[in-house]
Amino acid sequence: MRDIRLLSEPFNLGLLIGPFTHAHPGLGGVCTFVGEVRGGDGVELLELSHYEPLTLPGMEDLADRAFARFELMGLLMVHRIGPMQPGEPIVCVSAAALHRRDAIDAVDFCMDHLKSASWFWKREKRADGWHWIEPRDSDHADIARWG
Amino acid sequence: MAVRIVFLGSLQDIAGREEMEAAAPLDWARLLEAVGPDCAAALQLERVHIACAGTVLADKVALLAQDGDEVALLPPVSGG
């Protein structure tokens, strides 16, 4: 199963991951990462913008590369766009495989590329207004691990 | 017909707008002229990319947009 989506509304994790897991009888493992909008830094709202002609095609290309690189039975990659509140899920990547290492590494690979090499632009609203967020040095170091 | 220029992310703030139109054909020099000096300076940064008609250019200086093309100005990304 391959499920790559952009969503403009909050998503229910169970409704995504349950069917995804059940679609792969005989799997050896499922690894799921869920990213949420961090609270506590004075962030009132987060907004994710995208560019229609590139963003979803770029995620499909990322999924192609994950399937080519790891032995996967399935891959789910869901990313929110639009405004969202602290505590809301912003991204979910789940991989099913016969062996755990492929599932874990595929999720790690996809997340590193979603963070700093996919067509999204993130800004946060704090008390003093909107701030554009750029990847941190550690994000660039993370993606460099994959060569 | 013309070329539609779309500003993404922080370039919207720098340009003060989300999109504009420019006469075709639009090359790199004409693009820099069209978007104004602040945005032109940002476009020259290595981390800023340009897409034309849905394809990210390997060499943005080689831009040559035709009538009806959409040119997207893409600052550093941040997702997840």
Describe the structure using short key phrases.
heterodimer; A: 147 residues; alpha+beta; Aldehyde Oxidoreductase, domain 3; 4-stranded mixed beta sheet; 4-stranded antiparallel beta sheet; 4 helices; 35% strand; B: 80 residues; Ubiquitin-like (UB roll); 5-stranded mixed beta sheet; two-stranded antiparallel sheet; 3 helices; 7 strands; 26% helix; globular
Describe this structure as you would to a colleague.
- The complex is a heterodimer of chains A (147) and B (80).
- Chain A has 147 residues and is an alpha+beta fold.
- Chain A has one domain: Molybdopterin biosynthesis MoaE subunit (Aldehyde Oxidoreductase, domain 3), CATH 3.90.1170.
- Chain A has helices at residues 13-22, 52-69, 100-116, 137-144, and strands at residues 2-7, 29-36, 45-50, 74-80, 82-84, 89-97, 120-126, 129-133.
- In chain A, the strands form two sheets. A four-stranded mixed beta sheet of chain A has the order 1-4-6-2, with helices on both faces.
- The longest helix of chain A has 18 residues, at 52-69.
- By secondary structure, chain B is α+β, with helices and mostly antiparallel strands.
- Chain B has one domain (3-74): Roll (Ubiquitin-like (UB roll)).
Straight-line distance between termini of chain A = 27 Å
CATH architecture of chain A: Alpha-Beta Complex
Helix fraction of chain B, binned, reads 25-40%
Identify the strand order in the major beta sheet of chain B.
2-1-7-4-5
Order of helices and strands of chain A: EHEEHEEEHEEH
- Please state the structural category of chain B: alpha+beta
Mean pLDDT across the residues of chain B is: 97
Order of helices and strands of chain B: EHEEHHEEEE
